[in-house]
Amino acid sequence: MRYETGEAMLLYQRVRNYLEKQIEKGKPGELLPSEYQLCRSLGVSRVTVRRAIKDLKEEGLILSYQGKGLFVLPQPQLRKKERVIRILFPVYDQPQDWFLLPLLQPIISHFSRHPYRIILAPFSLREISSSRLKDTAGLFWVAPYANQIGYLPRIRETGVPLVVLNRVIEKAGFSYVSTDHVASGKLAGEILISQGHRKVGYVGLIEESQPTVHRLAGLRLALAKEGITLKKNAVISLFLPVSFSRVTESTKKLLIEEKLTSLVVSGGSLLPACLKALRQTGLGLGQEIQVLTFDEAPEVEAETEASLTRIVQPLEEIGQEAVQAMLSLMGGETRPIRKVLSARIYEKEIVMK
Length: 353
Prior knowledge:
Layout: H1 6-25, H2 35-42, H3 46-58, E1 62-65, E2 69-72, E3 84-89, H4 100-111, E4 117-122, H5 130-133, E5 138-142, H6 152-158, E6 162-165, E7 175-179, H7 181-194, E8 200-204, H8 210-225, E9 235-237, H9 244-258, E10 262-265, H10 271-281, E11 290-294, H11 302-305, E12 309-312, H12 315-330, E13 338-341, E14 344-345
Parallel strand pairs: 3-4, 3-5, 5-6, 6-7, 7-13, 8-9, 8-10, 10-11, 11-12
Antiparallel strand pairs: 1-2, 12-14
Helix pairs in contact: 1-3, 1-4, 4-12, 7-8, 9-10
């Protein structure tokens, strides 16, 4: 199967996963949803639905009769364990989001070329139960929240190879591929110091997100090296689910009371709310105040983006390295595989006309 884009690949997997669940729950001869119903309920095109149906027909899982619909075929044997690859992602994200898509694309691209069934699902305790994982050859867990790290030993007890993406797991015995978030925070501090900033603020999901905590630690290290203290009052700690109106109001208060000259926003999704606070306080971006953010800047206008300093993660490379780590573990490697990659300053490409 060939895909035009990574998003097309994920939409295909959404349809396929849905139909496979219906096949597992259904009985031989049971009628499945029509193409129209699948398009409408899953929010995908008819082309995507037909691709998934074609593949499932070729695998002998369903049968279609023109004018009658799709039907479940008798399954002579259960799928083999080595054919299932599971990918868990954060419950507040979608696979086609700017953050997840480049992480997932290398994984799905590799394993879809081999006889594996790929299942994507938001994290839940059910998804890591021993009954759910019994048919799983490998599990990728993308960006678990801080309060979910404690479930890692439960997965290890099942014996399923596990690779965590974009989180540094300090507990022994677990494999991960991640950005070096402490180094990213230090880089942010060094950039702001080089620009002459001394009054720095910080906004992020400190209680929920390990990268936010590590970036803050790195920022503090860089500032402390120059004798600068990041005051407690200059840090906004957010919780999930995020109230973006609260982000705006808290940022406005921070800007006014602390008289900041720079603001570090940990996470592109928080950026629009912080920029709204700047507009409401009348501060000029890149003039009265410098804003530094991490990763992409979704929903930010081009002229605004040009005034931002961005540090981006090597998301696609993390996905590629995670594939290699998983292949090693599935091949019998018993030692944990741990790899951290460096973030970089975003440099906008200049197109010569």
